[in-house]
Amino acid sequence: MKVFVTGGAGFIGSAFVRMMLGATSATRLINFDKLTYAGNLENLASVANDPRYRFVQGDICDANLVNEVVEAERPDVIVNFAAESHVDRSILSPTPVFETNLRGTFTLLEAARTHKTPRFLHVSTDEVYGSIDAPHDADENYPLKASSPYSASKAGSDLLALSYFVTYKMPVTVTRASNNYGPFQFPEKLIPLMISNAFEDKALPIYGDGMQIRDWLYVDDHCRAILAVIERGREGEVYNIGGSRSLPNVDVVHKILDAVGKPYSLMQTVTDRPGHDRRYALSSEKVMRETGWAASQRFEEGLKATIDWYRQNAAWVARVKSGEYQRYYENNYANRAV
Ligand code: NAD
Ligand code: TYD
C-alpha cells in the first residue's frame, strides 16, 4: 500500500507513520506536513532513513504543492491527520483552525478528486458530538453539536468529506476518535501537560471543578483502528473509535501524581475553559463489529508507559517547551487562578 499521510510529524500522525513502516504494510509512505509548533521531525527519527519514506514540508492549503505531490506519487490512500488540534488554542486564535481544518481538508479532497485517489480517510474526533449526557454513549448517528472553534471546524470538515462521497462518489471514510494519550504528545494537552508540570513541581491547572469526563484511548490502539478502517471499513461511512475508559479529569490527574510520587497539593483550580464540554463518551460498537478492531491497552498500563516515556525523554520535553510554548502557556494560563 502506497500511503500519503498529512500531519505525520504530529502526535498521532507520527505514531501512524512509525506503525506503517514498522509493520511493513506500506510499500511507500509520503508524509506531508507544514511543521507548525506541533510538528516535530524528532518524532520520526526512527524512520527517517527508511527508503520507503519521503517527507515533504508543505501546507495542506497549498493546492499547487498538494496536487504536485499527489500527481507524482499516485498514493493508494490519503490519510488526513493534519489539523490545528487544540481546543484552547482554537479559542485564543481561531483563524489557523479554520484555514487548516476546513480549507486544508477541502484542498486535499479536491486533489483526491482530480487524481482519482482510491481511498481517502479523514481523521476526526468525538468532540463533534459536543457534550453527551450520561448514561448515553454517542454512536455515529448522534447529532453534531460542536462547542469550540476546533470542534466546529472538525464537524465542518467531516461533513465536507462525506459530501464528496455522496456527490462525487469518492471513496471517503471518516473516523472519530476519543481523547488520545501516549508518547510524543505535545504538552499542551491534559496528560502530557500534567506529567511534565508534575516532574517540575509546577502547579497543575484544573479547569473548573475538574469533573469533566473524557474517554481515553491509547495512541497505538487508535492507529491500529485507522488501519483496520482503511482495510475493512466501508466507503461513505463514519466510524467511532473510543478507548472505553471514561474518567473525570481529577481522577486522571490523581493517577499521574500517584505514579510520579508528587502531592495532590500541586493541583490548582483555575477559571474554566469557555464552552467546556462536560462529558465525552463513545460507542465503538460499529468499528469493532465491522473491522474486528478492539482497544487493547489498559489505561493504567498505558499511563505508566506514557509517564516512563516522558521521564526518559526529558530533552524532547525541554525542547518543545521552550520558545513558542512559553508564550502560549502565559497567554492561556496567566491570570486564570481562582
Ligand atoms: P498534533 O497537533 O499533534 O499534530 C498536528 C500535525 O499537523 C502537526 O505535525 C502539524 O505540523 C501538522 N499541520 C498542522 N497544520 C498543517 C497544515 N496546514 N498543513 C500541513 N500540516 C499541518 O495533532 P494530533 O493530536 O496528532 O491529532 C491528529 C489528528 O487527529 C487531528 O486531525 C485531530 O483533530 C485528530 N484527533 C486528535 C485527538 C487527540 O486526542 N489528540 C483525538 C481525536 C482526533
Ligand atoms: P485536552 O487535553 O485539551 O483535550 P480536549 O479538550 O480535546 O478534551 O483536555 C482534556 C480535559 O482536560 C478537558 O476537560 C480540559 C481539561 N484540562 C484541564 O483541566 N487543564 C488543562 O490545563 C488542560 C490542558 C485541560
Ordered list of secondary-structure elements with their pairings:
Blueprint: E1 2-6, H1 11-22, E2 28-33, E3 53-57, H2 63-73, E4 77-80, H3 87-92, H4 95-114, E5 120-125, H5 149-168, E6 172-177, E7 179-181, H6 190-199, E8 204-207, E9 213-218, H7 219-232, E10 238-241, E11 246-248, H8 249-260, E12 267-270, H9 285-291, H10 299-312, H11 314-320, H12 324-333
Parallel strand pairs: 1-2, 1-4, 2-3, 4-5, 5-6, 6-10, 7-9, 8-12
Antiparallel strand pairs: 9-11
Helix pairs in contact: 1-7, 2-4, 4-5, 6-8, 6-10, 8-10
Residues 6-7, 9-13, 33-36, 38-39, 59-61, 81-85, 100, 104, 123, 125, 154, 177, 179-180, 186 line the site of nicotinamide-adenine-dinucleotide.
The total count of helices amounts to: 12
In the CATH hierarchy, what is the superfamily of the domain at 2-181 and 216-241? NAD(P)-binding Rossmann-like Domain
Order of helices and strands: EHEEHEHHEHEEHEEHEEHEHHHH
- Based on the structure given, which CATH architecture of the domain at 2-181 and 216-241 is correct? 3-Layer(aba) Sandwich
Bound molecules: nicotinamide-adenine-dinucleotide, thymidine-5'-diphosphate
Number of strand segments: 12
Span between termini: 53 Å
Q: Output the CATH topology of the domain at 2-181 and 216-241.
A: Rossmann fold
Unreliable spans = none
**Strand order of the biggest β-sheet:** 3-2-1-4-5-6-10
Q: Which shape, going by the Cα principal axes?
A: globular
Compute the CA-based radius of gyration. 19 Å
Can you tell me about this structure?
With 338 residues, the chain is an alpha/beta fold. It has a domain of 206 residues: Rossmann fold (3-Layer(aba) Sandwich). The chain has 12 helices and 12 strands. Helix 1 links the parallel strand 1 and strand 2. Helix 2 packs parallel to helix 4. The longest helix has 20 residues. It is globular. It starts with a strand and ends in a 5-residue tail after the last helix. The site of thymidine-5'-diphosphate (TYD) has 13 residues, from helix 6 and strand 8. Nicotinamide-adenine-dinucleotide binds next to helix 1, helix 4, strand 5 and strand 7.
